[in-house]
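Homework-ish question, so no full write-ups if that breaks the rules, but can someone show me the predicted structure for this set?
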Amino acid sequence: MSALWRALWRNLVARHPAGPAGRRERALLHRDCGSCNGCEIELRLALSAAHDATRRGLTLVAVPQHADFLLVTGPVTHHSQAGLGAAWDAMPDPRLVVAVGDCAVDGGVFRGSYAVAGGAGSTLPVDFAIRGCPPTARQILDALGEAG
Amino acid sequence: MSDPFAGAFAMPCAGAARYLLNDEGWRAMAAAPGLRFVAMWADESAVIALLRDAAGAKLMATVAVEQGFFPGVSPWRPEAAEFERMIRDLWGYNAVGGIDGRPLLDFGQWRLAHPLGRPVAPFAAPEPATSGFAHKGTLALMRGKPPRVAARFAARVDGGATVAHSIAFARAAEAAGRSRVPPRAEQLREMMMRLEAVGGALECIGRVAVAAEAALLGGRVAVLREAVARTAAAAFGHRLMMDAVVPGGVVADLLADGPGALLWLRRSVAAADLPALLEASLGRRLRDLPAVGARMALALETVAAGLEGLGMLVEQLEDGPVIQAAMAVAGEGIGEATGPSGDILHWLRLEGGQIAGVFMLDPGWVQAGAAAAEAAAADASDAEIVLAAHGILASGMEL
Ligand code: SF4
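A: Not a homework solution, just the prediction itself:
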């Protein structure tokens, strides 16, 4: 676990005081930058009742202004770079970028295509990379610091 | 009108006749009332249209591209316009008389123009992107690779239909390479396709539940969708069964835990009593939205029939190999499969053991029109539910 992660964690805990059940709320913004939908299937499962998402305090939000984490899926296509950058710029500090899946980590099988810029790192500073094509719901939750 | 295909030269394509037409024959094809237009794509210096005749049989028409131009089909068939736009963006071939000259995928941000056409100098004319964000250059990445390697891209057109796309691709490669798949491999493919369909049907219900804010239903369906993923991993080694199907057969046999997992899944789904849950959560709402109601009924049927079929298939599995790798190095063929949201068709041309031309037709092309029409007819408050029931994916169409 990196120092950055711990620092952010403390900050998040301070910002979202633990409730009676000791639950910390974390707001996730998801941006699909050209995914095949495989990562979305796992991400949706990770954030559903199948994995007790509400008890883990993870919620998806629709606008960057409310988000703590930016979850990026898909190889970042040239067409999606501007939108991804705009979402990040609108997020308040502290904020983290999580690359979900091989495509978002480094372009995956689409690396080198004329239409693809690469992973999320082509556009944003990535804090966490979750490998897998797609990573399982469990791996996503583990990486988000909750499971296991 | 005379038969546009009369006397035309038939090219060898396994799975559907492909006729070489001159411009006049092509226009006659475009205007022929007895033919239904399905799709259109391009190959080296040629455009290919896929049609169905009055009896539903598949036909392919080909016309040569001269100096970058071919006769447009959209003046007669407006549904061809989007394909003409795609062909212009990807191959650089212009439809003469085409009714819509706007770009579809290329908004000036790729590293090269017309990536599938002959090499052209890159141009710089950045415009704000409005669509095309999911275009990944998949077809270009597949060209020049042997089918077994290119299969990884077919498996990543749509993660929710990865099995069906992989099967359609494998069948096209097998048709082109005139190779036969062992019976056990066919049976295992069928099993995977059914399991994928069950997962897709659950996702369809789940999307509608979320759009309609039916939290209890959404939660229960998610638990079952997770059970499908676990079953797929136990039976076939991957939660979405990605890369499990390859040209020639399947990569691995049914795993030892498979039959038990399938039985467990069947019991879990039966215990959840989805039909009753759906009726209790959304019954009244769905009576006002008959099209969505019909889709939900179909999804329930897919789940029930799929699980029953899987039970039977396990028992009927024949002994034998699961892959037959030998394949001719040149040829052309099409392959089909049924995905969770509709029919999938792949076309490919092999040369020297490598892919020389390929196109993958996703059901999104057909579905997008239907979904837009249904959503436009619904109340604004219901449009989201209507779209959720369709679940159209940009990646499938934009490739
Ligand atoms: S990592 Fe794999 S599953 Fe995820 S978007 Fe890329 S190809 Fe699809």
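Now go work out the reasoning yourself. Hint: Residues A 35-36, 38-39, 73-74, 101-103, 108, 133-134; B 156, 159 surround iron/sulfur cluster (CB under 6 Å).
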